[in-house]
Amino acid sequence: MVNRKYMESAKKLFLKNWVTGNLAVYCGALGLLHPLIAHGFTGDHDKLLTTPQFIMHTLSLFVFVFFLVRTQNKTLQIVGNRKTLAGIWPFLFFTPWAFWLGYYTLFVPFDILFMFLSIGIINAIQLKPLVKFPTKWVRQCIGVYFLAAIAGIFIGLGAFLLFYKNLPGIARDLATWLSISSPAALVVAYCFKKILKSQLIMPGDNESDSVPEQKLPLSKVA
Fold it and tell me: Is 131 in contact with 200 (CB distance < 8 Å)?
């Protein structure tokens, strides 16, 4: 029988790492690395990007989802067997595609919204086997990433319009993306902490705590 005390400790460690990992990835990879890679090398751009600008933006998204998937999987290894880069290919394909779809059809801030929704949909599908109520999980997962996007858009772009728009170059981009990614990170980290606390399947959850009743042979009963 799985040691219940050990599993409770493992779940606490998982939830702690989920929070710190998401805060680090969203603030670090999206808030800092994205503007540095996307804008630091090729400068400011209009709605129509040059080819180098498009390439660097896409590369920055690859870097972001790489760290996101790696961090998620390293955290999930606490409660089960999971390869470090398991399931990365849908993120590498669909997340940049969703970002550019939003950007070139509806423009900012729909690039951010579509990017977060793509992450939510992929996680909703890929992590279904790890939760107790898969149908509910799909709704919860997509809903949380939608809320994260809305929080980031309103706070980040609001701060841009009020405080950052006159800042020079890369300083403006860094301030804006940190203001987008930080509230989004808080939503993802703490909403999923609450959800996964009750939803996550731990090893031994399907084991019965009761000892099966032993039937006596008929010869002993007679």
Answer: yes
b/e per residue, 108-127, with b = 16+ CB within 10 A?
ebbbbbbbbbbbbbbbbebb
Q: Distances from the Cα of 55 to the Cαs of 30, 58, 59, 114, 175, in angstroms?
A: 16, 5, 6, 19, 22
pTM of the model: 0.89
Comparing CA positions, the residue from 150, 158, 162 lying closest to residue 186 is: 150
**What is the C-alpha to C-alpha distance for residues 191 and 78, in angstroms, rounded to an integer?**
19
Is there a contact between 178 and 185 (Cβ–Cβ < 8 Å)? Answer: no
Q: Which amino acid is at 18?
A: W
* Percent above pLDDT 70 for the chain: 91
pLDDT at position 41 is 87
- Non-local (6+) Cβ contacts of 84 within 8 A are 70, 73, 74, 77
CA proximity to 107, closest of 153, 66, 52, 59: 153
| Average of per-residue pLDDT values in the chain | 90
Cα 79 to Cα 73: distance, rounded to the nearest angstrom: 10
